[in-house]
Write a structure and sequence with these properties.
By secondary structure, this protein is of the alpha/beta class. Helix content is 33%, strand content 24%. It folds into 3 domains: 1-113, P-loop containing nucleotide triphosphate hydrolases (Rossmann fold), CATH 3.40.50.300; 115-169, no CATH class; 171-243, no CATH class. The longest helix has 20 residues, at 183-202.
Length: 243
C-alpha cells in the first residue's frame, strides 16, 4: 500500500526486489575484486545506505541488516525518513538484543523508531488432506518503547487466520492525528483496504504488476475503486503475462 509517487530506494547484496514504481532506485552492493583482502572496488551495504541519504528518499529499504549499515538506517529513521529492512532472529526480543549489540550497536533509545515488527515463520499446515510448508506472519508487534511491545495482530494456527486487537495499538491514534482524522475514520479506511486485498485474493490477482496497478488506482480514485469492488464490477489491470 505504498503511495505510487513515493521515492523508494532499495539496497541489497543480491538483486531480488522488482518494484513496479516509477520513482524507484535500486542499489546493489559489490564485493571486492582485489587480491589478498585489499577491499579494492568493494561497495558495502554501509556505504550504500550512507550514499542513499543524499537522494532524500521517502522510504529506504535495506534487504537485510547485519552490521554497521543498521546504525546508519536508524539515523535515517531518526531524521524523519521512512525505512524497512529484514533481519534474522528467533523472536522480537532476540532481534532487539542483536540490534543493541555489536556490530549493529543501536542505542536502546532508537529502538522505538522501528514502530512495527513483523515476525515471519515457516509453518506446516494441512490443506485438502495435504501437509505442506507455508510462510505466515506469526504476529505484528508495535514498539511503544524500549521493551514495551504491543501485539495487535496474532496468527491463529488452527484457523489459519489472524486475531485482531486494535485496542492494544498505540500507533493508530498517532496515525489518525497525523492524518487529521479520528480513530473511527482510520479504522474504516483500514477495513476498506482490507476489502481491496480480499477482492484481489478471491480473484487470484497475484502478479505484482496487477497488484501495484490496483493499489495505484485506489490511491488515485479510492471511492470509485471501492464502489466498483462492492458492486462486483471488474477492474482493468495490466496483463499478468507482462514481464
Amino acid at each position: 500500500m505504498i503511495k505510487p509517487g513515493s521515492k523508494i530506494i532499495t539496497i541489497e547484496e543480491t538483486a531480488e526486489l522488482n518494484l513496479p514504481l516509477e520513482n524507484w532506485v535500486s542499489l546493489i552492493a559489490r564485493q571486492s575484486y582485489g587480491l589478498g583482502g585489499s577491499g579494492v572496488g568493494e561497495v558495502a551495504l554501509f556505504d550504500l545506505v550512507k550514499t542513499s541519504m543524499r537522494h532524500r528518499p521517502d522510504i529506504l529499504v535495506v534487504g537485510e541488516i547485519r552490521g554497521q549499515e543498521a546504525y546508519v538506517l536508524f539515523q535515517a529513521l531518526a531524521t524523519g525518513h521512512g525505512g524497512m529492512c529484514t533481519m534474522h532472529a528467533e523472536n522480537l526480543d532476540s532481534a532487539v538484543k542483536r540490534l543493541t549489540q555489536k556490530p549493529m550497536d543501536i542505542s536502546p533509545a532508537y529502538i522505538p523508531l522501528m514502530n512495527v515488527v513483523l515476525s515471519v515463520q515457516r509453518v506446516h499446515l494441512t490443506k485438502n488432506n495435504e501437509k505442506r510448508a507455508y510462510r505466515r506472519v506469526i504476529n505484528v508487534n508495535e514498539i511503544a518503547d524500549y521493551e514495551d511491545y504491543r501485539v495487535p495482530f496474532t496468527w491463529h494456527p488452527g484457523r489459519d487466520e489472524h486475531d485482531v486487537d486494535f485496542n492494544s495499538s498505540v500507533l493508530l491514534s498517532s496515525i489518525a492525528v497525523n492524518l487529521g482524522i479520528d480513530k473511527i475514520a482510520l479504522l474504516q479506511e483500514i477495513n476498506r483496504r482490507k476489502d481491496v486485498l480480499h477482492w484481489m485474493r478471491v480473484r487470484n490477482i497475484r502478479s505484482y504488476k496487477d497488484v501495484a496497478a490496483i493499489i495505484a488506482e485506489y490511491y488515485s480514485k479510492p471511492k470509485d475503486i471501492y464502489e466498483k469492488i462492492l458492486t462486483g464490477e471488474e477492474l482493468k489491470v495490466a496483463s499478468s503475462q507482462e514481464t
